[in-house]
Design brief:
The protein is mainly α. The chain contains 20 helices and no strands. The radius of gyration is 23 Å and the shape is globular.
Length: 466
């Protein structure tokens, strides 16, 4: 046997060895949520008609489990949504772009959760359960963080006498909450495979899609709308008042209590069952060795190269467009509400394009979409340039400008969704092991571009002074 044939055989053996593990990762991984500028939202949806058919089975006997999973994913989306709303609130408080860049660190845990996922899967207390050993303490801690945060909101957001925003503490708090939410995500993804019957496991992805999206929507769009004085006075009240219906302190306190109550009920009443086919007892070290061997595969290395370069061209537009529009006077709650029309696009488009991504060259669509996304980035710059001149009064813009923004966000979302890759063709395990690099690079580039924008602002002020 030639050396080339031996290498190909060894690679095939490695692929076959890890293919048996792929059923453990049947929850969707493409949870891209635009964090620093939530001008659109990305959702997990079935990627092909085959996936849709997999969920089209009887749910008798599993309806309570599906409802529980849905609720757990809703809880998971709440911290994400709140973190996504903070940059909007900070923009209205005239913080610097350097401070915005610092806060972007809060979104990193979901990008690099792969680094501690083997620990969650391997270390547990058998008397409580493999997943509940992590689910219960993480949700209790999220509740503690939210309740404590609710009492410190005035000082953190500069609502006290000194008026300074404590961006360092704010970043650390939301980083910790997102770390706990990411750990909860790992536990719930694994629990879904043993909680549901084998024929209903396909519902795990649907629960992730609907649940996390609902949680993000509640923590971001709904909160920003109810927190806005102008929105509440215009649409929800007959007598104008000086504040919105809720404050950030009220919202975090309410959900902190919900986390405590729901976690206690799950801990007491929901029993976890073992499932030998899904719950292997592979050690931590051997799991990390497995990850290393997967990352050495040639196809994975090629995919990583694409991920490490594809975001550079449009990271600046993605990171700062929303912030610059708010700086130009657009109300943050109206910008957030523009995410609502994107929901049908996120649901329908993957099913439409699945026939193009399910062939022998699933990366073609992603690569062909990149030039068009670059053009959309340039158009975003035009929108930001037009915003000051389009403004009619404080916080008021003509309807045509909102239509332009909505169409632009829609085109961007279409191009983003065409970058999805069919999981059946490339393989779940390989995508999961490399997708975290995509998110990590995206958040790093967003942080760097926001920081560079701060430098540019200082340079422009200096030139104007001279």
């Amino acid at each position: 046997m030639s050396q080339k044939t031996r290498k190909r055989t060894q690679q095939q053996n490695v692929n076959d060895m890890f293919h048996t593990e792929e059923h453990k990762f049947e929850s969707e991984i493409f949870n891209d949520v635009a964090p620093t500028a939530p001008i659109h939202m990305h959702f997990n949806v079935p990627q092909s008609q085959q996936d849709k058919e997999e969920t089209n089975v009887s749910t008798a006997g599993d309806r309570a489990n599906i409802a529980l999973l849905m609720f757990l994913y809703v809880l998971q989306g709440i911290p994400l949504g709140l973190a996504g709303s903070i940059p909007m609130i900070l923009s209205s408080r005239k913080v610097t772009y350097k401070q915005q860049a610092m806060f972007s660190f809060a979104f990193w845990p979901f990008s690099v959760k792969l680094l501690w996922a083997p620990l969650v899967d391997s270390i547990y207390w058998s008397k409580i359960g493999r997943r509940k050993s992590w689910l219960v303490p993480t949700q209790y801690l999220i509740g503690v963080f939210m309740i404590v945060l609710s009492s410190q909101i005035p000082s953190l957001l500069g609502e006290t006498a000194d008026g300074s925003v404590n961006i360092t503490t704010l970043t650390c708090v939301f980083f910790a909450m997102n770390f706990l939410a990411a750990t909860q995500d790992i536990a719930v993804d694994g629990w879904a495979l043993t909680m549901l019957r084998r024929e209903n496991v396909g519902w795990a992805s649907t629960c992730n899609t609907v649940g996390q999206t609902t949680g993000y929507f509640l923590g971001n769009v709904v909160f920003l709308a109810l927190e806005s004085t102008d929105f509440c006075n215009k649409y929800l009240r007959s007598v104008p008042q000086l504040t919105g219906l809720v404050t950030l302190a009220d919202f975090t306190y309410f959900w902190g209590i919900i986390f405590f109550i729901s976690t206690t009920l799950v801990f007491v009443f929901k029993k976890e069952r073992d499932h030998p086919s899904c719950d292997n007892n592979q050690g931590v070290i051997s799991t990390y060795k497995q990850l290393y061997r997967i990352l050495k595969l040639p196809t994975v290395l090629s995919y990583i190269a694409i991920l490490l370069t594809s975001k550079v061209g449009f990271a600046a537009a993605d990171a700062v467009t929303g912030l610059k529009l708010i700086e130009a006077g657009m109300p943050k709650e109206k910008l957030a509400l523009l995410a609502i029309p994107m929901v049908p696009i996120d649901i329908a488009l993957p099913l439409i394009i699945s026939k193009y991504t399910a062939g022998p060259r699933p990366m073609d669509v992603l690569l062909k979409a990149i030039p068009y996304r670059l053009v959309i980035g340039l158009w975003y710059a035009v929108l930001v340039y037009m915003a000051p001149s389009a403004k009619q009064a404080e916080g008021q813009f003509p309807y045509y400008f909102y239509v332009l923004i909505l169409v632009s966000f829609g085109l961007h979302q279409v191009l983003f969704m065409t970058g999805k890759i069919d999981k059946k063709q490339v393989g779940w395990t390989q995508l999961i092991k490399t997708h975290f690099m995509n998110n990590a690079l995206r958040f790093y580039l967003n942080k760097r571009f926001i920081y560079l924008l701060q430098k540019q602002s200082k340079f422009n002020k200096l030139m104007n002074f001279l």
